[in-house]
Amino acid sequence: MAFRSGQMDKPHIVICIGSSCFARGNERNVAIAEEYLTGNGLADDVNVDLAGSLCSGRCADGPIVVINGEVFSHVDGGVMIDLLRRYLPTPSPVPAASANERR
């Protein structure tokens, strides 16, 4: 799933911040998503929509997170991290220069 350099559409993440989802854990999930994006240098590469007024209507199943149209329910902090890792893999590390390249 490439999402850099315009190769494919950016992943679309909607974290419901309606009162029920917010109270059930999406307040923390917003912070987790922001920390993950910033910590992995992805903040400029990902579309993150925080939907509050546009409640999904699935309050009993909350907290609700939607990624690329796929709905995930009962998303706690651990599940949120797993989803971010699944849909937004961390960039590959840049290999260190070899000793010959440093001379």
Describe the fold and architecture.
- This protein has 103 residues and is an alpha+beta fold.
- The chain has three helices and four strands; from the N terminus they run βαβββαα.
- Strands 2-1-3-4 form a four-stranded mixed β-sheet.
- Helix 1 packs across helix 2.
- The longest helix is centred in the N-terminal third of the chain and has 21 residues, at 19-39.
- Mean pLDDT is 78; it is low at 1-7.
Give the CA-CA distance, first to last residue.
37 Å
Average residue pLDDT: 78
Helix content: 25-40%
Sequence of strands across the biggest β-sheet: 2-1-3-4
Strand percentage: 15-25%
Order of helices and strands: EHEEEHH
How many runs of DSSP E, i.e. beta strands? 4
Give the biggest beta sheet. Answer: 4 strands, mixed
Radius of gyration: 16 Å
The tally of helices reads 3
Which descriptor suits the 3D outline? Answer: globular
Unreliable stretches covering 5 or more consecutive residues: 1-7
Query: Structural class, from helix and strand content?
Result: alpha+beta
Keywords:
single chain, about 100 residues, alpha+beta, four-stranded mixed beta sheet, 3 helices, disordered N terminus
